[in-house]
Amino acid sequence: MKGRWTLKDLPPEVRPRERLARDGERSLSDAELLAIILRTGSQKETALELAQRLLYQFGGLQGLHQCSLAELAEVKGVGMAKACQIKAAIEIGRRTFESARTEKVTIRSPSDVARLLMSEMRYLDREHLKAVLLNTRNMVLDVVTVSVGTLNASLAHPRECFKEAIRQSAAAVIFVHNHPSGDPTPSPEDISLTRQLVEAGKLLGIEVLDHVIIGEGTFVSLKERGLMS
């Protein structure tokens, strides 16, 4: 009787490990990458099928990131060992991102801002408002969270938005927040807050260069749209 299914039971041309070696990791789907981490499935499904089921059950990689270890371990076919493997892989990705962000990055365009924060902010289930603090050469000094809002609203006061910029003697700041809906179109509230921040920055001598809204794989620059004033 057939025991536990593994990736070796799949045809060679569709095995995730072989595809990664042949085509590179960027060519693999989320399910294929997760299947490599899982390594084995169960008597009823391959690792790839288990990976697909997990992504469906938790709503993608974002859900796997946000669920608890206990919740993941309770899923049939997973258990504590596989749950730890998944959580460890996600944490490695998070630490890699954090490490890269501490390196000196120069912001030249809204695309640079999106590259800096897209992978972190596109999966958040609440609106997070962040401030990218810059020196006189537009090099990133720090990225700080200003506020965490509700499902569709970022709760922030201009006073709090500049607190860290003042403390770290930033010359300029770019504000960034996400839309959990995935649509980065600015709301009237986004535009109003941006204009308040621009005026507050003028009083403090800290230039507000832009306000970037992150969506699902896309973004909008209020500066590019002429909505800063």
Fold blueprint:
Layout: H1 16-23, H2 30-38, H3 47-58, H4 61-66, H5 69-73, H6 79-102, H7 110-121, E1 128-134, E2 140-148, H8 158-161, H9 163-167, E3 172-178, H10 188-204, E4 207-214, E5 219-221
Parallel strand pairs: 3-4
Antiparallel strand pairs: 1-2, 1-3, 4-5
Helix pairs in contact: 2-3
Specify the CATH homologous superfamily of the largest domain: Cytidine Deaminase, domain 2
Q: Give the rounded overall mean pLDDT.
A: 87
Order of helices and strands: HHHHHHHEEHHEHEE
Helix content: 40-55%
User: Remind me, CATH topology of the largest domain?
Assistant: Cytidine Deaminase, domain 2
Q: What characteristic shape results from the CA principal axes?
A: elongated
Determine the number of helices (DSSP H or I, runs of at least 4 residues): 10
Separation of the first and last Cα atoms = 71 Å
Structure classification: alpha+beta
How many domain modules?
Answer: 2
The proportion of residues in beta strands is 5-15%
Uncertain regions spanning at least 5 consecutive residues: none
How many beta-strand elements? 5
The first-level CATH class name of the largest domain? Alpha Beta
Instruction: Give the strand line-up of the largest sheet.
Output: 2-1-3-4-5
Rg estimate, integer Å: 21 Å
The major β-sheet equals: 5 strands, mixed
CATH architectural category of the largest domain: 3-Layer(aba) Sandwich
